[in-house]
Amino acid sequence: MTSSGGSTPATPATEAALAAADPPAAILIEKLSLWYGDFQALFDVDLRVRAGAITSLIGPSGCGKTTLLRSVNRINERLGYVRTTGSIRLWGLNVLDSTVELAQLRKQVGMVFQRPNPLPLSVRDNVLFGTRVHRPNERQPTRGESDRIVEEALREVLLWDELKDSLDRRGTELSLEQQQKLCIARLLPVKPRLLLMDEPCSALDPAGTEAVEELIWKLRGDYTILIVTHNMAQARRASEECVFMLLGEMIEHSDTASMFLNPANSQTAAYIEGRYG
Amino acid sequence: MFEATAQNRRNRRVEGLFRLLFLWMTCMLILPVALILGVLIVRGGPAISWEFLFTQPINNMTAGGILPALVGTVWLVVVALIASVPVGVAAALYLSEYAPDNRLTRAINLAIINLAGVPSIVHALFGLGAFVIFFRFGTSILAASLTLAIMTLPVVIVATRESLQTVPLAFREACWNMGATRWQTIRKVVLPNSVSGILTGVILEVSRTAGETAPIMFTGAAFFLPFLPQGVLDQTMAMSLHLFVISTQVPDVPEHMPFGVALVLISMVLAMNGISIAFRVYLRGRKKW
């Protein structure tokens, strides 16, 4: 169903420049094409995502940015009629190989959704879910270890002070902002290296958006973050590198500041100026 | 500028007419149920006594109690549940959580819904052929309960599948994306949030099983057997068949007796439905998302 593409140097000049400037790549996508049935959603996408940075994917609706994001942890495949060619290397290993264990892949690659989706369990159980799922029955965390995991994760997403006295509340009863932070917190205990975020703020009010953006900014460095957004102001505020996609193709990739000040491609310029999208 | 036109008045008349029509139909629906209950209570009520519920029938079933039939119905229902619930819930879990959404799955789902419409007498003949004769269970509680189980299986599957589907997909996606397997997702998130619906389906099934007559007639229910069953290979009396027998097959039964049996049977069913509703309300109150 999948095949790894060759390492043909078909990457645009900007890719080569970024690669030279900063060698360690967390994600290296080469010649990635993807079809939903007969519909081709991605065309030979090449992309190099710098480790430890926040990279945002922007582009008009239907440009394939969410598809690209969902290919990285392979949740697209659940649909059954998806076909992929090319390769997606995470730290050198192609995740599209048939030998990849999806449970391990998803442990390394956490995902945050548009709509906060905490589980209908207590805050505590939400945070512990990943640990419980990934450990065998005889090595489930003890009470003390659980407390430590929960505190650490909630501190990391700046929720500990708000929620330390209500760890038994249901995750689904929190405010949307708290829910989304909880959804990030529950990924952290299994020590992912990459976080994928699919418009993580689009269901939140302005205050919530600001808080979650701040959190994402704080997490950079510790995690490589790939974030889809259709909010250009957000991409500009909260990312270090920016990728512009259009109709399933990668058009431009540069550091965020230069893309917004001085886009190399005329289509990028038109999108950023708001002439379409 | 704001006064009603002829068209407005006509619309209002039609509106009133339909409202009245629908209200009338609703009353017509409630009326027979109320009448049945009323007649049963008035005419069967005097028959109910400690002795009626807890003694053997005597004098060719024209006197005495209904204990063997009462106990027999409980046996039949419990064994049928033990047989049908695990199979039905497992099948529903497969269809809802594992099966790919393709033409075969849709065909199976359609077949299950149609199976629920097979007349009970057909199930009875199947049970006679399969369990009584082929598997050599003889006419026994086991054969009768298995026949009831086969008959109610589609209902259990459909009810379970529907309550599984009420758990939002977002919860499953959240689990899968943390690397949880389907089974871990089912055990930790899907089942705890759908158990109320499943139990409701099961209890409704119980009440249906208790009232069925045809499927047990050839497979395990006895006309007259004034002993309590000792095991699943015994024959037994049952409430529904007992009602049929003393209403139509035995001469000189005092009139209050069949009404009494019917009242006990319908009380059992209503009590179980009541428990099911109470349960559903209780569990739904606890679940919030």
Based on CA atoms alone, the radius of gyration of chain B comes out at 24 Å
Give the amount of beta strand of chain A, in percent: 15-25%
**CATH class division of the largest domain in chain B:** Mainly Alpha
Spatial extent as radius of gyration of chain A: 19 Å
Give, in spatial order, the strands making up the sheet with the most strands of chain B.
1-2
**Strand-and-helix sequence of chain A, N→C?**
HEEEHEEHEHHHHEHEHEEHH
The name of the CATH topology of the domain at 13-118 and 191-272 in chain A is Rossmann fold
CATH topology of the largest domain in chain B: MetI-like fold
CATH fourth-tier homologous superfamily of the largest domain in chain B: MetI-like
CATH architecture of the domain at 13-118 and 191-272 in chain A: 3-Layer(aba) Sandwich
Alpha plus pi helix count of chain A: 11
Quickly give the structural class of chain B. Answer: mainly alpha
Shape of chain A: globular
Description:
Chain A has helices at 13-21, 65-72, 102-108, 123-134, 143-156, 160-163, 176-185, 206-219, 232-238, 256-261, 266-272; strands at residues 25-36, 39-50, 54-58, 82-90, 93-94, 109-112, 194-198, 224-228, 241-246, 249-255. Chain A is of the alpha/beta class and 277 residues long. Chain A has a domain at 13-118 and 191-272: Rossmann fold (3-Layer(aba) Sandwich), CATH 3.40.50.300. In chain A, helix 8 links the parallel strand 7 and strand 8 (224-228). Chain B is 73% helix and 1% strand. Chain B is mainly alpha-helical and 289 residues long. Chain B has a two-stranded antiparallel sheet. In chain B, 40% of the residues are buried. The longest helix of chain B has 39 residues, at 6-44. Chain B has two domains: 6-47; 51-286, MetI-like fold. Classes of the chains: A alpha/beta (277), B mainly alpha (289).
Question: What features would you highlight for this structure?
Answer:
heterodimer, A: 277 residues, alpha/beta, Rossmann fold, six-stranded mixed beta sheet, four-stranded antiparallel beta sheet, 11 helices, 35% helix, disordered N terminus, B: 289 residues, mainly alpha, MetI-like fold, 2 domains, two-stranded antiparallel ribbon, 2 strands, 73% helix, globular
